[in-house]
Amino acid sequence: MKVTIGGPLKLAFRPWVEGLENVPAEGPAILASNHLSFSDSFFLPAVLDRKVTFIAKAEYFTTPGVKGRLTAAFFKGVGQLPVDRSGARGAGEAAIRSGIEVLERGELFGIYPEGTRSPDGRLYRGKPGGLARVALATGAPVIPVAMIDTEKIQPPGKVVPKLMRPGIRIGRPLDFRRYQGMEHDRFVLRAVTDEVMYEIMKLSGQEYVDMYATAMKRQIAEAAKAEKEAGKAAKAALARAEREQAEKLKAAMERADKEQAERDRAGKRRSDP
Question: Can you give the pTM of this predicted structure?
Answer without folding.
Answer: 0.78
